[in-house]
Specification:
Layout lengths: L4 H5 L9 E11 L4 E11 L2 E6 L9 E11 L2 E6 L14 H7 L2 H17 L2 E6 L7 H11 L6 E4 L3 E3 L19 E3 L3 H13 L5 E4 L9 H12 L5 E4 L3 H10 L3 E3 L6 H10 L2 E3 L15 H17 L3 E2 L14 H6 L2 H6 L4 H8 L1 H6 L17 E4 L15 E4 L2 E5 L2 E2 L19
């Protein structure tokens, strides 16, 4: 009987028993901005088991030569929308029409595609913060965890919770079109029910519209969100549009402020004092945006805001709010282009790399569990040709990607397989969790 290589990869234990040895020329530690030369990293059962210069390599190990590369932990986008891609000019945003015309099923397929391109660009973790139809984000996360598709670790929010209407202004005859893109929650009972609904359907972080309408949430209402989410060990991220809304969110002790347009020196100082995360989503100014009225002025304001936040020692995360299509670019390419904003703010390259890695794991609330190249942690890493501590643009050409000890990309080319789990998926994994 003939057994295909693909079938063998699905046999129980076929992958998990194998030891992989990486011979690394330059191992980058973004936490302290150092590089260790000539390191050996052993991986077994999807986790790092040994790291050092004199680590013995088992004779049966699969050896990968990365001696010519700089190896770093995987990158993190702390604010994306993988199941949303509106194809229109920025000044004619078709987001509302997209949510009406695209089914959750097609958006889930979009999310798979966008997730793959994110991995190809070196992003092994993504905080996916809403605008995913009827829980397409949970479908994506579970599919990745069960091994049906490759993709980054997903920290998903489920449906965005907001005061009546969310971010939409539908006519009375079409009031129902608010859902499922937003959950209306205007009373304490509705707030509790909305948080519990998202948790039940697989959210790993709770996202709220702090001030999307004039009747935004009060600090006390946000404290209720925070306490209810905490029962399940989750944090609360707040979409903020106004200075007053930012002050209320900071007063409530929100985990992260999403978007930076309303932030200033006052709010930055308060956020730094409380340790609140700034997830700024600063869009770069590129040739694609030159025809957008006011784009350059907005970009300049964003850069000044980033400089101010950095000077005030605010916790900052690399984040994009990428939910649009640029001709000739996939989602991963759109996201990595946000380097332009950080470079324009003249933040030192080692700090930016730390923000793109270590800070990403922290804001995702996974810092103690995964992300770092550390014994016992899941084996996620990327390799580039140059030293990202000196030249961040080397991150634009990621040559090698590994996640959970499985190769996704080698020599600059995505590996066709395997990315499936070794063996049957346990029954518990079929539940949304």
């Amino acid at each position: 009987m003939r057994i295909s290589v693909f079938a063998l990869l699905l046999l129980p234990g076929c992958l998990s028993a194998q030891v992989t040895a990486l011979k690394i020329g330059h191992l980058v530690n973004p936490e302290n901005g150092t590089v260790a030369a000539n390191q050996v990293v052993l991986i077994e059962n999807g986790k790092f088991t040994a790291i050092g210069t004199n680590v013995p390599i088992p004779s049966s190990a699969t050896q990968i030569d990365l001696s010519q590369y700089y190896v770093s932990p995987g990158l993190v986008d702390a604010h994306n929308h993988l199941a949303l891609t509106y194809k229109d000019e920025p000044e004619h945003n078709s987001y509302y029409l997209t949510t009406v015309m695209d089914s959750t099923a097609i958006r889930a397929i979009q999310a798979v595609s966008n997730g793959i391109t994110m991995m190809n660009a070196g992003f092994t973790m993504v905080r996916d913060l809403g605008n995913n139809g009827n829980y397409a984000d949970t479908a994506l996360r579970v599919a990745i965890e069960q091994g049906w598709v490759p993709g980054p670790t997903i920290i998903n929010s489920g449906i965005i919770i907001g005061g009546f209407g969310g971010q939409f202004y539908p006519v009375p005859e079409r009031e129902s079109l608010i859902e499922p893109e937003y959950l209306n929650a205007d009373t304490n009972d509705e707030i509790v029910k909305a948080v519990r609904r998202n948790i039940l359907y697989g959210a790993k972080v709770i996202k709220i519209c702090v001030d999307c309408k004039p009747y935004g949430y009060t600090a006390d209402e946000m404290r209720l969100f925070i306490s209810e989410a905490a029962k399940a060990g989750l944090k609360v991220a707040g979409h903020v549009q106004t200075h007053a809304g930012a002050l209320r969110a900071i007063d409530a002790g929100i985990w992260s402020v999403e978007h930076s347009g309303a932030l200033d020196d006052e709010t930055h100082k308060l956020m730094a004092k409380k340790g609140i995360w700034r997830v700024g989503t600063e869009t770069p100014f590129t040739s694609y945006h030159t025809n957008t009225p006011g784009a350059k002025q907005r970009f300049d304001r964003q850069v000044e805001g980033m400089k101010n936040a950095y000077a005030n020692h605010v916790n900052m995360a690399f984040s994009t709010d990428a939910d649009y299509y640029i001709p000739g670019m996939d989602r991963g390419q759109v996201v990595i282009d946000f380097l332009k904003s950080w470079q324009a703010a003249q933040i030192p390259a080692p700090e930016i790399l730390k923000i793109m890695t270590v800070n990403g794991y922290k804001v995702s609330d996974l810092y103690e569990k995964r992300g770092l190249i550390k014994v016992g942690f899941p084996a996620d890493l990327i390799a580039v040709r140059g030293n990202p501590l000196e030249d961040l643009d080397t991150l634009r050409d990621v040559r090698f990607v590994m996640k959970d000890g499985i190769f996704f990309k080698k020599d600059g080319v995505m590996v066709p397989g395997p990315f499936f789990h070794s063996g049957p998926v346990p029954p518990s994994a079929w539940r949304i969790h």
